[in-house]
Amino acid sequence: MSPAQLAFDRDHLWHPYTSLVDPLPVYPVASADGFLIKLTDGRELIDGMSSWWSAIHGYNVPALNRAVQDQLAKMSHVMFGGLTHEPAVALGQRLVEITPQGLDRVFLADSGSVSVEVAMKMAVQYQHALGHRGRTTFLTVRGGYHGDTTGPMSVCDPVTGMHQLFAGFMPRHEFFDRPPGGYDAALDRDYVSGLEEFFHRHADRAAAFIVEPVVQGAGGMHFYSPRYLEEFRRLCDEYGLLLIFDEIATGFGRTGPLFVGADAGAGTGTERGGSRQPDIMTVGKALTGGYLTLAATLCSNRVAEVIGAGEASVLMHGPTFMANPLACAVAVASIDLLLGRDWPADIARIKAGLARHLRAAAQKPGVKDVRVLGGIGVVELHDPVDVASIQARFVAEGVWVRPFGRLVYIMPPYVISDAALELLCRAVVKYV
After folding, report:
1. More reliable by pLDDT, 162 or 388
2. What is the model's pTM?
3. Which of 101, 126, 209, 359 would give a disulfide with 139, using CB separation of 3.0 to 4.6 Å?
4. Does residue 351 have an active-site annotation?
């Protein structure tokens, strides 16, 4: 990129969560291949972020390139209203097959945040169709993050989240404490008692309980036990609420199982959900392997049938680019590529490497906690990082890590080599 182009970027282009008055530095990218990002000055960076959880296969993937090229030769887009096409049908079939059994209806949205909007509207329409017109609020836990559009913002943490500025603009929902930390921790009975009282107080006005299962992502990279999902399911059943799992960040193997909503967590994604089965689930990010924006909201037959019998009879949502053929085609190829390799072994290998190489960070005085789950490694600090400063140091070390707040975290592509993973972790330990 020329100096003039970089100047235009600085003066006119808004980057995520960056000021236009005093923007953070950006690093111009020339290309990307495998787990490496190549800058225009020739430097190569080991990607520690999978482009915000999405590029699980890395970059410039031949199978995904072919899927896009083959579909482009047929059609890049056609409206989904009154029309259909093979890539959408094939993707729907894959999602019904690999997600927890019982999630048989698929709405193909155009971004993760929109898929959460759709999930919330499904829940409200469901309750409305049952005659519960006062059930329009949502129950959730603190520390969550579900997206940046209005509905998802309203169920993000109202105090520690990124959207306090909009408190007077958004609808108000009910929040309980997030589950105690620790994926392997025992169930805290005092917490469960408090959760029961929370449902007792607020459930009569609520449509659903929405949560990120097991990992709260941008809300703080908080890990908690899947045993709490069973309590969420039990209380939703008791009080007539739908249970929504936001698996946009956790889906497609990132935490260990293919989807957290699968009961036994064995990694096949086909177990009967049972005691932790959601009624509605959202997926995105890794859905297309990082190639194109696409997400999906899946629901049970019961949810679809109740909405279909209601006053509106149709789900009141229809994005222009829903079920985009290009995105659907590459999503099918990405799912097939994932399931065609020993992805559980990749996650186990990455988990072991993260645990081994990040361990030394726990001894540093500025570090509060080091935790690893599946293909996610987190170093939590006592104080917020200076993003511009620490990122420049990471780039000088040849790695790409994008911290936020007090968190320096890693979620590399599943194809990263052991040597590259070690270099990535060593850079984090060096500068936290």
Report:
1. 388
2. 0.95
3. 209
4. no
